[in-house]
Design goal:
A hairpin with a 5-residue loop joins strand 3 and strand 4. This protein starts with 29 loop residues before the first strand and ends with a strand. Helix content is 0%, strand content 65%. A 6-stranded antiparallel sheet has the order 1-2-3-4-5-6, with no helix packed on it. The protein is elongated, with a radius of gyration of 27 Å. It contains no helices and 6 strands. The protein is mostly beta strands and 186 residues long.
């Protein structure tokens, strides 16, 4: 969990009476991010020469934040003039993904080492990010208002793969492999 200090926009050209790299924030900085993850690996020795592995994972991320973009560089002379109030706000960002992999592989001390596998992964995510910009202060007239909304993205990935290594001698090994992946993004 991350609820630490969010970013701050610092004045690079401070106005009179203010310090270099200072800020006069009129937006309460806010940061809240949570990540939950589970990873696992299970191995089975089928016989002296072959093993099977299952590798899985799950992760979920949720976050939101608020950021003072203008940093107080200009002082408003009224509610509608003299400065720009700008807030950058991530209303939500949500990511959820999981993966599964099965590997069948050689484990003996033979002339050939090999592995065959299948893999599947999926992700769903969405985010909303707002940028309100007002003339003067937050109560001023709207200069520009933007919302970037990505309602839902999904990713599905499937793969099969194989690799073989030939121990031609103690000093020479030749390795070759193939992988086929099919990704679907929406």
């Amino acid at each position: 969990r991350d609820t630490g200090t969010p970013n701050a926009n610092l004045m690079q050209r401070p106005r009179a009476g203010q310090d270099f790299w200072s800020t006069l924030a009129d937006v309460r900085p806010y940061l809240d991010r949570d990540v939950d993850s589970i990873r696992s690996r299970m191995d089975w020795q089928i016989n002296d020469d072959i093993a099977l592995s299952y590798i899985a994972g799950y992760s979920k991320f949720d976050g939101s934040s608020d950021y003072d973009q203008d940093g107080g560089v200009q002082v408003p002379t009224s509610f509608t003039t003299g400065a720009t109030y700008q807030q950058d706000r991530t209303n939500y960002s949500e990511y959820e993904n999981y993966s599964h992999e099965f590997d069948l592989k050689s484990t003996g001390e033979g002339e050939l080492d090999w592995i065959l596998g299948v893999y599947y992964a999926a992700e769903q995510n969405k985010i909303r990010f707002d940028i309100p910009i007002f003339n003067g202060t937050q109560q001023g007239t709207v200069a520009w208002q933007g919302s970037f909304i990505q309602p839902k993205q999904t990713v599905d990935s499937r793969a099969v793969f194989g690799q073989i290594t030939w121990h031609a001698s103690d000093d020479l090994r030749l390795t070759g492999g193939l992988r086929y992946t099919d990704d679907s993004k929406e």
